[in-house]
Amino acid sequence: MMKVDGIVLGYAFVSSLVSAAGAFTTVNLQIRNNLQHLSRTACTVLPTGDDHIIEPSDFQDQHREHQDNSKRNLLKFLANGVGASVVLPSFVSPALAMYTDPNSKILLPSEGEIQSSLPTTWDKDDNPFVDLDKSSFSRLDETPDTKFYQDPRFTEHVDEQAVQSMTNFIASNDVLKENDSVLDMCSSWTSHISPSTKAKYNLERVAGLGMNEEELKSNSILNNDYTTVDLNTKPDVKLPYDDESFNVVLCQLSIDYLIHPLNIMREVGRILKPGGKVIIIFSNRLFLQKAVGLWTGKDDVDHVYTVASYLNYCQDGLFTKIMARDLSVREKKKGRGGERMVVGDPLYAVIGEKASS
Question: 12 near 85, Cβ under 8 Å?
């Protein structure tokens, strides 16, 4: 959302700005002052040709009670109203205990908030995705993804310490077990699985599914076990794997680009073995023009709830033990009472386990 004179302007308005500027394939730097307030999420924009930060958003630190019902209602409101032109500011106040980093001006969750952001029980009647229109998952750039990703990008999309945190987490026994078969969905030139990790767990298979063949060929951990598929072509797209093929499915820094996430999560459930895990890792860095509207109007706690909702509501009872982890690197900073604050790019994971038959 973009705030102008106390009013938050919606996704459709910003989309028209980008369209008018001719910036469907790249974020036009001439309109960055308009886009810098696109949302309270403080999503960091990745230009298509360079991965430095353009502008962080600068919403002031606010606090409010962060109850399950208000979270669900906010998600429904944003989902249904993403195409509207005006959103009242009261609907987009930050989550409990979130703070604005004084240097970057980015809104971030306090330590422990991510882990406690999900409900302990889920209600079928609370499904926020019922009767959504297509605009909820529309994007500023609706050109085919095959065009956007046709040129390889041999670069990381989060900073070095976030990469290390992600690599360490994937290497832990919270993710991998002996003889696991792993699918890296939305893969690229790296899966953040080291040769030593593959050897440690004696991984039976590490397969990759992505968009750019040159990147996938360069991913040595895949050993040429890869497939190129555009998951955004049609709602009923099928993953090219047999039922119950994998113990683990990874989705790294890509969930915000999927326009049919509920269908994809059902497919993930199909190809996972009973008791297998899906690990969805994300940050607040993104290619703004390819992120879905439902994502860009939220803070990081909302992102966690949204991803967890994908897993819970994609199919009744398919995933259990849905939980969230804050993988961000944190250090103590002066003036915050000894609280450890996020340093560099934040990083989060949502984990779900396929229910046993």
Answer: yes
Q: Tokens 């302990």 correspond to what residue?
A: 120
- Report whether pLDDT(265) > 70: yes
**Residues in the chain, total:** 357
The C-alpha atoms of residue 30 and residue 36 are separated, in whole angstroms, by: 11
Q: Do the beta carbons of residue 256 and residue 292 sit within 8 Å?
A: yes
Kind plus residue range of the DSSP H or E element containing 167: helix 160-170
Q: What percent of the chain is predicted at pLDDT more than 90?
A: 60
140 contacts 11 by C-beta, under 8 angstroms:
no
Give the domain extent around 204. 145-354
Handedness of CA 220, 222, 224, 230 (dihedral sign): negative
* Packing angle, helices 68-81 and 300-313, rounded to 10: 90
State the Cα–Cα distance between residues 170 and 175, nearest whole angstrom.
Answer: 6
Given 82, 107, 137, the domain boundary residue is 137
pLDDT band at 82 (very low <50, low <70, confident <90, very high): very low
> What does the pLDDT look like over 198-219, one tens digit per residue?
999 999 999 999 999 999 999 9
Q: Which of 111, 137, 163 is at the close of a domain?
A: 137
pLDDT digits (tens, 9 = 90+) for 233-253: 988 999 999 999 999 999 999
